[in-house]
């Protein structure tokens, strides 16, 4: 670069000297020498163009080299960072706090200064992903507004949504990429509008997401990576599950699924939530059981039913709720009869109905078409009729399991088993 600049400077000085010579000539001499002057002007223009091309090429090559050097240096830096953390780990020193400090510093001080297309952003996001994966830590700041997550369709900041790829009773789901490394689901809540109230409610939920992660590490509960603001709707971010919901999976792999193991693992996920201090009621189990790549169930969107109630001010079972019409068959009867508070006993009831759906492949009370009639039947204590078809029985719905389901559907709620008792029976 210095040599190219020196050449430009030398050429400019040479042109200046020639122009000074022409200035000293009288009018007659300039007239006589006009052909010579024109040729020298053309030569000067050509020389300047050549210098400019040389300078551009040199700067381009130097920039390319700088980018290569930057990538190499950051690879070395990353290796050195992990080596240092491994040494601390080997010495028995606490590394989690060190990792937290590093990740927090990157999120708070570095990411806000970078924009998409900046080579450094890719390297920084990769570093955060490597740290999160190796040390099983969520990002310290779960409000993901500095490039941590982008919409997958076009790689833009996930601020504008078009057509969802999936949906549930309450949510629209879009594809995204997290820390430039893994596919995620961006879930917008239809009844939410972006604003201080909804974002503050998400911020209150962050502590719960982190607490559940620290206990479970994604074994039974689908992690929540964070939240952010979409166009008109806030969204939450979770790992994408290619196998879809438990009903998608059991229909596709019917002959390969161990149904008894499946429902036991679902119960273990509920046990994680009910075992928290204070206990956490899921509130919407039916729609939120996804299947991992290894074929294990993961409870997703825990606590969001309560968030929706808090922000909208309407119980999830209200007749005006977009969710209620589909979910009536899974909701405990007391939720329609004055006590609409989501609770652990209601989760147990919903678990029983979900097990029935998984084993039969049909909605509970499948012989009753009208949802309002189902509410009336529940009010009078009518439970689902036991299915006796060969397929359901072959999946493992025996006398013991049916007795457990009847227990889960008992009223009043105090008669139902705890999740620990459910697991003992399973």
UniProtKB/TrEMBL annotation:
Keyword Transferase found: yes
Taxonomic lineage of the native organism: Eukaryota, Fungi, Dikarya, Basidiomycota, Agaricomycotina
Keywords: Kinase, Transferase
PROSITE patterns membership: PROTEIN_KINASE_DOM
Any GO MF annotation of the entry: ATP binding
Name of the molecule in the record: TKL/TKL-ccin protein kinase
Classification via Pfam families: PK_Tyr_Ser-Thr
CDD domains: MLKL_NTD (cd21037)
Superkingdom of the organism of origin: Eukaryota
Domain Protein kinase, residue spans: 159-426
């Amino acid at each position: 670069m210095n040599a190219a600049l020196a050449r430009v400077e030398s050429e400019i000085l040479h042109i200046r000297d020639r122009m000074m010579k022409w200035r000293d000539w009288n009018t007659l001499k300039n007239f006589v020498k006009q052909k010579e002057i024109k040729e020298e002007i053309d030569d000067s223009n050509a020389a300047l163009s050549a210098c400019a091309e040389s300078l551009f090429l040199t700067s381009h090559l130097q920039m390319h080299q700088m980018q290569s050097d930057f990538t190499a240096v950051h690879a070395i830096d990353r290796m050195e960072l992990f080596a240092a953390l491994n040494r601390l780990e080997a010495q028995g020193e606490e590394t989690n706090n060190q990792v937290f400090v590093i990740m927090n510093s990157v999120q708070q001080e570095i990411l806000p200064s970078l924009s998409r297309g900046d080579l450094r952003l890719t390297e920084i996001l990769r570093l955060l992903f490597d740290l999160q994966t190796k040390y099983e830590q969520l990002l310290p700041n779960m409000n993901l507004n500095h490039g941590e997550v982008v919409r997958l369709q076009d790689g833009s900041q996930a601020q504008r949504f078009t057509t969802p790829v999936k949906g549930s009773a309450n949510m629209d789901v879009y594809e995204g990429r997290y820390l430039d490394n893994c596919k995620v689901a961006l879930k917008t809540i239809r009844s939410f509008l972006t604003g201080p109230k909804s974002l503050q409610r998400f911020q209150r939920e962050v502590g719960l997401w982190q607490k559940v992660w620290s206990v479970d590490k994604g074994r039974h509960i689908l992690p929540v990576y964070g939240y952010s603001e979409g166009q008109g709707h806030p969204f939450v971010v979770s790992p994408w599950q290619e196998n879809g919901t438990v009903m998608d999976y059991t229909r596709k792999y019917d002959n390969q699924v161990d149904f008894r193991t499946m429902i036991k693992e679902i119960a273990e996920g509920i046990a994680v939530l009910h075992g928290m201090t204070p206990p956490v009621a899921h509130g919407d189990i039916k729609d939120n059981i996804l299947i991992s790549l290894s074929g294990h169930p993961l409870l997703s969107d825990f606590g969001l039913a309560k968030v929706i109630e808090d922000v909208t001010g309407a119980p999830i079972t209200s007749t005006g709720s977009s969710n209620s019409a589909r979910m009536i068959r899974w909701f405990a009867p007391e939720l329609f009869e004055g006590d609409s508070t989501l609770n652990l006993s209601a989760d147990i009831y919903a678990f029983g109905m979900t097990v029935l759906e998984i084993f039969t492949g049909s909605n509970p009370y499948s012989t009753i078409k009208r949802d309002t009639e189902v509410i009336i039947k529940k009010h009078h204590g009518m439970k689902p009729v036991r299915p006796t078809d060969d397929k359901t029985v072959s999946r493992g719905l025996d006398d013991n399991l049916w007795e457990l389901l009847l227990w889960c559907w008992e009223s009043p709620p105090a008669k139902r088993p705890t999740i620990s008792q459910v697991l003992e029976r399973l």
